[in-house]
Every structure is written in structure tokens, then in C-alpha cells.
Specification:
By secondary structure, the protein is α/β, with parallel strands linked by helices. About 45% of the residues lie in helices and about 10% in strands. The protein starts with a helix and ends in a 14-residue tail after the last helix. The structure holds flavin mononucleotide (FMN), iron/sulfur cluster and FE2/S2 (inorganic) cluster.
Amino acid sequence: MYEQLHAIQREFGYLPGEQLRLLAQRIQTPLSQIHATVSFYPHFRLAPPPRAEVRVCGDMTCHLRGGAEVKSSLQQAFAGVPPEEVLLGDVSCLGRCDKAPALSVNSRIYSRASGSSAVSMVRDLLGGGQLPAESYEQVRASVACDPYQGSPTYAVLRKLLDTRDFLGVIAMLKASGLRGMGGAGFPTGMKWEIVRNATGNAKYIVCNADESEPGTIKDRFIIQSVPWLVIEGMIIAGLVTGAKQGILYIRYEYEEPKATLEREIRRCYQEKLLGAKILDTELSFDLEIFVSPGGYICGEESALLEAIEGKRAEPRNKPPFPGTNGLWNQPTAINNVETFTLATAILARGVDWYKAQGKNGSLGVKFVGISGDVKNPGIFEVPMGTTYGELINECAGGIDGGRELLAFAPSGPSSGYLPASMTNLPLDWNAVTAAGSMVGSGAIVVCAEGRCMLDMALNAVRFYRNESCGKCVPCRVGSQKMVEMLTGWTEGRSGEADLGLLNALSSAMKLTSICGLGQVVPVPIASVLKHFPDIVNEHLQQKYCAAGVCFTGARR
Ligand SMILES: Cc1cc2nc3c(=O)[nH]c(=O)nc-3n(C[C@H](O)[C@H](O)[C@H](O)COP(=O)(O)O)c2cc1C
Ligand code: SF4
Ligand code: FES
């Protein structure tokens, strides 16, 4: 259905009602169902587009790097221009956090934007000019853990076809301690074993390349640099679990990585590494790319499956989990891009090699994205056990503008913020959990002194409010209530009972939200209350913001 919807939108610029009616007849699906799906996703439109649709990212990193200033320049320049001409709005993280701030103009994405460059680009467009090419280019980099060093031979797959030692693969992954790199850290060997042992008419392997949480930029880098490791990992997972079909679910804004994957998949089909009778054996595995129709919630594994099935991306109640009841209710192994990549590297180079990549007692290697107030934001392949101080100062070049570090989020909004005093903490699953945060997907966002941490908590909570799918009340209503309360705190409106109410709301959301999104909404403000209580007290009691960010009436 999505293919046909995209085709209609390409032809008409939007989805006209008559075309949807014709589609409903053609595919014999109730029109109401098509509408329910289409209206859920940000990349489908039901009305004709304006001449210039400009959306500015104001999430975590772009908030730190001047997204609000870009938006305000655009607002001033196009004040009074009718919305059919210029429609100005917000957009959630565009996956360009290392080159923030980012914005989209008629769905093209521009990074390192300034107010003046954005205004002149839109003026040119209105004057009949063309939009420039997108400004982000991901340079292919060599990756130390790549066993092929840029010349992939798919040696692990070839060997596995000879030995058929599928249980050995599971044993190796278990021995390596490899955990899921998408955020939850579930042991990968165990996940593949569950799917192998599950019964079903068919089984599926799904790669989650949706990465849409502010600060998360590593999967894009991995796909651009070593697409073969992702693909080989998926084929191996297919052979080990008995799945014959793989789906690579990629976020809408990743045109370039998608093209890279398409090229490599084509090559694999030509070389008989994919398809029926892989390398002339009786085994088969097909792989296709599915482009997300948009929304952060699509990264949640069960919502992602709903999206592939053509429905609204609303998370399922769990259990059952996808390992036994996944795509089309069949056993499904869903893993993150980095997880498949590291699985291939481990199988090629061995468990001992993988463990030895870590330092200070931690095992393995990880890709992290570092963005925010640092001199050299980017993606880095680092030993587990590296301290956050080393990551910020050595990898990302330290704080820019001659400032000191104030706080850092180990993994975007869902990890909350930790204070500068905790930079000795190592990148280690257990250590970070014990410190009350999480390694997560490794989306490190750095805040320099002069930032208001209450403002940063509000920014994170607002992201979740915007991205809540709305299926369950605690998250849909609770996230809005929390945004209202924190906005009040930053504008001088707070009540005596607010802290008690916040606690009650937070525990209700944690206990009763269906999925991880609703459960982490309270995390950013809880972390700021824990580590920066004075800042909150100043706002609540003295109506004072030392950073000069709040009480100005200028916040969005
Ligand atoms: C709201 C939400 C968004 C998520 N987004 C992603 C994502 O973009 N990429 C990802 O790999 N995992 C994401 N996850 C985690 C997935 O649900 C799932 O745990 C993961 O894809 C499993 O792969 P792994 O075991 O290799 O980590 C998200 C979870 C939640 C609750
Ligand atoms: S917790 Fe939020 S995002 Fe998750 S299902 Fe409920 S409403 Fe949707
Ligand atoms: S692109 Fe704006 S926060 Fe990621």
C-alpha cells in the first residue's frame, strides 16, 4: 500500500481524496483504514503543499546549536506571508545532529543552517529558483572492526554455508556478551536462539535503521561505511534462525544510506549471496528495504512491525514479544544496525578479539555519536570502558567556545542528564546503569556551562510529547501535562503542589504506559531534579534563571 501511496503523492504532490477512494477500491481495503494509516504518518499529506514548507529542528542538539534562532529569523522574514506560500513549522530530529542545526525545505534537508542562509534559500525558491542540493554528505570512513577492511568477501557467510554450525554462531554471540545496540541492550545470542526455537509458518529478520532519537547518528555512519557487515549479519541471522526473508527498515530522511544499501544488496544478489540457492546451496534469503513513513515511535520494535504491515505505528502490548510473535505474527528477530555489524565482526574475528577491544575491565567496542556543545561533533568507534570525559575531550575535541562542561546525556533524552562531575564514568553497561542512566544507543549530547538544565529537560520532554503515538492515555495526556508544568516553571508559573504532582504523574506514566516512550518521558526532568536541584529551586522559588534562558518569553 505504501508504494502506491508514495506514487500518488509523487504525482499530485499530496494524496487527493478521489485518488484514495480509487486506491481503496483497487486494493479492496476500507477507505477508513487507509485514512487511519495515512493520517498517522508525517510524510503523507492530505492537502496540497505550500510553495515552501520549512520545518526547523528544535530538538536537543539543534536546540543547543541555534535551531530557535534559525526559526525566529524565518518567522521575522516571512511574517504575514500566507501559509499557502510559506508554511513554517517544527520538525523532530532529522538525524543530522553532528551538523546541527538542521531544517527541511520541501522535504530536502539542510544542516549547519543559519538564519540568513535559510531565509535566502526560501526567498530564492519563492522567486522561482531551485533549492540547492542537500547539504549533508556522509564521508565513508574506514572502520577498525571491519574484518574485510573495505573489501568485503562475506567470508563468515561462506564458512557458515560449509560448516552449517548454526548453534556455534549462537554460542559465540552468547560468549561474546554482545548486547543490542538499539537502546535496550538485550543479549543478541539469546534473541537469535529464541527465534530459532520458535515455531511458525515463516520467520523474519528485521534490521532497525530508524534512528530518530535526538543525538542518535551512528547507524547512518555504519551503513555508509560498512554496509556489508549489516547485510552479512542479517543473512547469517536468517540462516541461524531459519528465516528466509529480511527487511531493512530505514528512516525516511536517510536517502544516501538507503542508496548505499541498495547498491550493496544488488551486488549480493549478483554474487548469489542473497536470493534463492545462496552460493548454489539449498538455502535462501531475500532482503528488501522498507522506508519508514516517519515518526520516532516507528523505531519501537512492535510499532515498526505494525508500520511494515501497513497499519498505524502503534506499539503492541507485550508480551508476546516479536521473537515468537513478530511480523505477521510470526517469529521475528529485530536488531539494530550496529548489532548486526558487530555480530558479523565477532563471528569473523572471534570472541577473544571482541572482548579485548574494551578497556578498564569493560568488554567490546561501540559506536557513539557525540553532539552538542563540542568542538568536533561526530561518530566515533571506541573501546567500551572509555570514560565519558575521554569521549567528550579526546574524541569530540572538548567543549567549544572556551567554556566548561556542565552536563552530558549518555544517550539522548531517554538517558537523562548527568553532571560534569561524572565524566569519570566509563562507557559500560553496568556502570552507567548503576549511575542511574544508560549506555543506550550511545547518543552523547553535551551541554556547556551557561545552558539552563531545566530548559534542556523541558526540551527533551517536549520531544516525547510531540512523538507520542497517542495510543495510551498515560503517555498521550501525561506527556502534555508534563510539558505544561515544566513550561510553567520556566515562565514563572509554578504551584506549591507541583513537585508532588510531578512525582505522581511520573510514576503513573512509568507504571502504565504501554511502551518505552511513555516510560521514559519523566527521565529528563527526574535527572535534572537529582543532579541540578539548585537550578530547579531557583526557577521555582526565586523565578530566576542564572543562564538567562527562561522568563524571557522568547522560548518556543
Ligand atoms: C520509542 C522507541 C524508539 C526506538 N527507536 C529505535 C531505533 O530507532 N533504532 C533501534 O535500533 N532501536 C530502537 N528502539 C529499540 C527497539 O524497540 C528494539 O529494542 C531494538 O531495535 C532491538 O534491537 P537490538 O536488540 O539490536 O538493540 C526504540 C525503542 C523505543 C521504545
Ligand atoms: S507509551 Fe506513548 S508512544 Fe507508547 S504506546 Fe503509549 S501513547 Fe504510544
Ligand atoms: S537533527 Fe536536530 S536534534 Fe538531531
